[in-house]
Design brief:
Distance between the termini: 111 Å
Shape: elongated
Structural class: alpha+beta
Length: 660
Amino acid sequence: MGVTGVVLVLLVTLFGLLLGRLGQLQLVQGPQLARAATTVNTRTVTDHALRGRILDRTGRPLVANAFETAVTVQRSVLVDAKDGGRGLVTRVAAALGLPFERLWGKTALCGTAGAPPAPACFNGSPYVPIPLATGVDPRRALTLLEQPEKFPGVGVTSEPARDYPEPEGALAPHLLGWVGPASADQVAAGRGRIDAEDVVGRAGLEAQYDAVLRGANGATVVAIDPRGIVTRTVSTTPAVPGRDVVTHLDARLQARTEAALARAVGSARAQKLPADSGAAVVVDVTSGAVLAAASYPTYDPSLFAGGISSSDLAGLTDDRRGTPLRSRLTSETFPPASTFKVVSVPAAVNAGADLHGTFDCSPSVTIGGHVFNNYESRGYGPIDLHKTLVVSCDTVFYRLAYAAWLAQGGLAAPVSASDPFVAMARAFGLGRRTGVDLPGEAAGRVPDRAWKEQYWLATRDETCRRAKTGYPEVASGDRARADYLKRLAVENCTAGYQYRAGDAVNFSIGQGDTAVTILQMAGVYAAIANGGTIWQPQVAAAFRTAGGATTPIPPKRVATVPLRPDVAAYVRSALADVTRPGGSAGTAFQGFPMERYPVAGKTGTGEVFGKKATAWFAGYGPTTKPRYAVVVVVGQGGSGSKVAAPAVRQIFDAILALGL
């Protein structure tokens, strides 16, 4: 065979092998290779949904979305440039009046070699345009688009960020909450619904209704070349915007409630009192709707817009500054003091006291070897329960509670003994969370026999140690207090589990270990006003889509207090006289139009060991057809009648002025 024949045979053989290989690739391995090619050559980019707004009852935004101007550049332009895009980024920085290093850092993906630490790097997808700068001057940014030959691949977009319009001056940060980047745990738990670039609610309504506000992210599938540069869009699934949360809040009343609380704190401090914390709330007694609520100390929620600095966050959580981030509406408990007496009257009647009887309001009474004095009032001699509430006489309640304690068996009573005062407190919702639609709610404390025993078991070792060592760290500054604490430790080391007469009488006036939230006390006074219904306090009223479709949130009835109608009417009559001349809040409500809008309520001045008294006023109005319960508390604020009652009066002034 000649050379030509050999070459021909080789060509035919090679051609046959090629055809066989092509057939194998197409017929046998084709589907597998096609899937692999798709996997290798496409990437999915998340299109983040626009977060819903938080609105007041009339639709005014309390939290909205502002759009910041961002300048971007296509990654392919940087990759194709001989200098890696440094020249282009230099020109962009000069045009925007920004440092080159700030923009250049954003061209590196966080975590890659040579990338600067976050947030200087770009913590996003490598398949989207790189955001070189955000929050830039829109006019400067647009000049870049007018010179495409000088700024190739450069684009201008708008990026959403949380905005706080403060309608009528209302801040409401402890209600609204704030957002922050999703954590690794949240991304994992989200199962694809949340990615590392998402923001999620961290507190308040933002956290409570995060799934509603966040919406559903979309996705864009892009094809990429071997360099990782996007060449085309394969498919797109649009994002679904989050729904708005419409609240019961009235921005006008919210602003005035915040101002009234701030004035109450200022009034207490003018009296040389610490007034280190406080809260105020307005609740609809017919539904539990929260129209306004404020916590002190407060802060500007715009600090969280676009991400809060570490120094600002440290200031908001600093104990020396009063931890402004902590909500005194939900997370803080206070001794209710004399505001609790509206619970004690029906409890005493259930224990056998005569609703229309006469009782001794002496300046003091000795029980169990201890002298218990009136705190808010002087001795009035024989008085009825109506006047007992009006003048806030403690010694009447001491005697009533002591009689009930003896009837239960005194010190010998079992832990399971039925206590009418404890039972009534629990019926009014104390000692358990209200269920308000805000995270981080405290349950408070109803210190019954079971609690006393459990607390003693949990603290016995430390108590017995202190019975021996005393409190030298306290003695260096206050010898009398240290001696008192040591005597208490000696007594409690062996018998701290006992529910003593002193525990019972202190509980009857909302003192001792009793602890409540302001929302719980608002629920108590709402139930007194409406005849015994406990409503779940609710801030959100409805969810609304961008198209206007609204889903209302119905009110939730939690319980009905076993309150005799005649007892409820008796208590309401007494509370109405508290705000009139001669009542403990008469001065605060002097000049208020009681004929047109009668208001009832109760003062409270809670003693706290080692601290100044807690100031309370809880009330409702109008008494003719109750609509709103209003409560104010100021920690270490002193007298309830001098500090808290005037603030409640100011809030009722606002309710009248606004025609609510």
